[in-house]
Each structure stands twice: as C-alpha cells, then as structure tokens.
Amino acid sequence: MSILLLLSVHEELREKTVTLGMQNAWENHCRDQVNLKKYAKAMRELATKHWECNIKAQPSVLSRIEWTYIQCKSYFTGDIYKFREKQKEIADKMKFKIAATSAYYTGKDCRQIEIAGCRKLDCLEVIAIDIAPGSDDVLKCDFLNVNAGNSLKVSNTEVQALPQNYFDVIVFSLLLEYLPYAKQRLTCCKKAYSLLKTEGLLVIVTPDSNRVGANAKYIKSWRFILADLGFSRVKYEKLPHIHCMAFRKEFCTDVARRWAELYRKNQVYSEMVIPQDFKSPDISKPEKNEHEQYTFEYVDEFPDCDEEANKLRELLRTKPEKVKKDPKTRRESRHERRDCVLF
Ligand SMILES: C[S@@+](CC[C@H](N)C(=O)[O-])C[C@H]1O[C@@H](n2cnc3c(N)ncnc32)[C@H](O)[C@@H]1O
C-alpha cells in the first residue's frame, strides 16, 4: 500500500478536469477500473488497518465511523424531536408551509446508505456504494450520475437507480473532496436531499489536519449552501484530521433558508469549494517544484499518527529528490510514482 498511489489518483483526476473538462474527465476516471481497484485496496487498508489501529491506540479520539454512529443514535432517539419542535415553532411564527406530517421519521425501519463506502457501519441496516467497490458487500454505483427513481434497482451488484425519499441517513465519508469540482460536490448534496426522507440525516466527514478554525471559511460556506438546499445543521465537530457534520433535511425548506438569509454576511464562498481548489494544477504553467508542493499539500491530509504518512513527510522534508523524480513531463512522473513503493 502506498499513500503515493492515493495521492497520484487525486492528482491525475484534477489534472484531467483541466485538460478534458469536468464530464469527460469524470467518465474517463470511472472507466479506469484497474487504477480505481488499486485505489480502493489502498484506501481500505489505510482506513481499516492504519487509521483504526492508530485511533484504538488513542482511546480519547473518536473515529469517523464511531462519530457517525453516535450522532445517528443520538439524533434518532431524541434530538430529532427537539429539532422538530423548534423548527415547527419557527415555521408557525413565520407562517411557512410545512410538509405533510406523515412523511416524518417514525422510528421504524431505519435505512442508511453510505456513499463511497469501503466499510459499513455496524448495527444499522446499510447499503454501501462506491465507483470501485473495495469488497463484496459494497455495490458499484456512481452517486454523481445514478438515477434517483421510485425504487432501488440493482443488476449484477451494480446499482441502476436509488429510491427518492427513502433513506434515513446518508453518509459522505471522505467523498466530497475526492471530487475535483465544486459543482460535483453540490450535485451529490442535491441528490442526497432527494433520496433522504424528511427529517433524515446527511452526515459529511471531510479531512483537514489543520487546527480548529483554520479552514472555517470553507466549512461555514458549505453550511450556507446546504441551508439553501433545505438542510439545517444538527451537529458539527472538529476531530483530529477531520471535520464531522450532520445536517437534517427540513420538513420546511424555508426554515433552513431563513437561517441562511439571517447570517448571509458570514458566507465567504458561494460554491462548495475546498482548499485544494485554489491549488489546482494548471498544467499550462508548471512550476519548478510543483510536484513536491502538491505532494506536501495532500500528504498533510493524512493523520500524523499514520506511520506511512509520517515517513513520507519526513522524506519530503529531508530528501525531496527521492520523491520528486524531476520528470520531463508531469504525466510520466505520475505513472512512475503510482507504481513506486517507497515504504
Ligand atoms: C477517500 S475514499 C473514502 C473511502 C471511505 N468512505 C472512507 O471513509 O474510508 C473516497 C472514495 O469515494 C469513492 N467515490 C468517489 N466518487 C464517487 C461517486 N461519485 N460515487 C461513489 N463513490 C465515489 C472513491 O472510489 C473512493 O473509494
């Protein structure tokens, strides 16, 4: 397993969006099943062996999976009623129209879908999907382009359609930053909105190794954009290396939008941007140390309790030439790095 392999897949996808455009680059990326499989294997190993082991060694640190599970449990067994009452009060006061109460969560048949799933949450009924499943219990599906219909349609372990107004929980665990375009992130959130039941939860986990508040302008802006779609934030926590957020699909979209209108002056970005969007490689103007910088930026997203990431950081600090092959072209270098095993 190599973190470099994960990094090179992200880098290549970002480069392709510059050269081929968003749609072609994405189709091209999804067709490259050989590399996607390698990515899935490496990611699964990193997620299940390295991160979970490191987290177990620090009992006070919650993993993204535990965080998601705790929030779902706490929301559906109690908080949902508090939110419902509070939002009803606002809707009554503002004379907003409320969706039919029969659509509300009733506590029966909790259904969850984990997008980009390389492992399932225990204890809940779950469907896990991924463009390149890392194990047999994950179904193949491109969430960006899958149809939202009346029922779940699966053919040969591949999802053809996902049902609307069906799921109680949708989990995007390290999914949104995989997508190189802000528009694609928004498409995923809009789709999640259509698939969730009223009062269902959208859980978003996104990596960030910086201190609390360092990237607040991005996280805040996401909240405004999600509020415009009809989501209210239920919970936010910055854990080491990740932001964890839970949003509920409001029974009254005007309630969520009202919050956004009240605090709009705090919204910095009008799109679902991430820090990497401002560092996108412009391949028409390659910089001298671009490879090196790029690897630094991405490796920073991996936990510093991760041994392999630490070795790579150290190597980049002390002997960057060992990582940087100083290629004639960026493309050659990328392929070299994909297959090189440093550790
Ligand atoms: C960084 S990994 C995270 C994996 C896992 N969810 C976790 O938390 O460890 C991102 C995953 O998202 C998947 N992915 C990216 N875009 C997707 C899409 N449009 N539909 C389904 N899965 C997608 C990738 O294949 C990859 O496995």
From TrEMBL:
Alphabetic keyword roster: Methyltransferase, S-adenosyl-L-methionine, Transferase
Binding site for S-adenosyl-L-methionine: D130
Documented EC number(s): 2.1.1.-
InterPro entries per record: Bmt2/SAMTOR, SAM-dependent_MTases_sf
Region described as Disordered: 316-343
Source superkingdom: Eukaryota
Membrane-spanning parts: none
Family: Belongs to the BMT2 family.
Described purpose of this protein according to its UniProt entry: S-adenosyl-L-methionine-binding protein that acts as an inhibitor of mTORC1 signaling. Acts as a sensor of S-adenosyl-L-methionine to signal methionine sufficiency to mTORC1. Probably also acts as a S-adenosyl-L-methionine-dependent methyltransferase.
Name the UniProt record assigns to this protein: S-adenosylmethionine sensor upstream of mTORC1
Annotated source species: Molorchus minor
The organism's taxonomic lineage, starting at the top: Eukaryota, Metazoa, Ecdysozoa, Arthropoda, Hexapoda
